[in-house]
Input
Amino acid sequence: MTELIDDRWLSELAQAGHVLVLTGAGMSAESGISTFRDKRQGLWAKYRPEDLATPEAFAANPSHVWDWYQWRREKLRDVQPHAGYFALAEVETLLPDLHIVTQNVDGLHRASGSRQVIELHGNIRRSICSATKRLIDDDWITSHADSPPPSPHAKGAYARPDVVWFGESLPEDALNQAWRLARQADVILSVGTSALVQPAASLPIIGVQAGAVLIEINPEPTPLSAQAHHVLRASAGTALPAIARALAQGR
Ligand code: NAD
Output
């Protein structure tokens, strides 16, 4: 896969003081997790995520929304990070200041050893109180068969997944950190995101306006492609290991 690697941008990456990696659902596609825009199959195929992943849907039918998330959590049990994930964790050890900002809620970056990870949209494996947003222990969830379990933190409230739903604000600290990282980045890698969901989609643009070199890794064109300085039309599982190998060889 050496033809994927171009010495021009590889040396920009190798010499970058600050690197930001923005990942989206395509990053996890080769681990077997569907993106929302894939052709859907199975039990929940007739429901659009946009209709289930909202505060209004949860208020109208908490059990229906909770069951959908339980189904997604079940599917995650068998999922392993692919080679691209481990390669990214290795790149973090080779470059002095690399941060990952992910839109994914599957927790695979940390599971594969990456340490500097900002989860913009939360983490599906955790649960919070629907009223107070305080974290709820896994033990509490597993010891309640209700759908959804009641919240231990507020009377009449429920447990809900710790994810940002459509129409909700992103966690302020995570978002501020992401803006700061985008503005200070020398190189931004945008991996597996359609660059359609805001505000994450603006991060690479902010970075480019502040002088960053933008490299896109995506088998398909996106609205970001025209602004990218370098485009790798390859999957994350192919491109990231090739980058890690090339950086490790110091070429
Ligand atoms: P998206 O579904 O809009 O776009 C996915 C992008 O990944 C597409 O541009 C596609 O061409 C690309 N892609 C597909 N396979 C790829 C591969 N093997 N390697 C690299 N790129 C590949 O995803 P998005 O931009 O992240 O926005 C969707 C929203 O849905 C996000 O907010 C995210 O939180 C959520 N979501 C998360 C997960 C997850 O946690 N794994 C899964 C589905 C959706």
Q: What stands out?
A: The first strand starts at residue 19 and ends at 23.
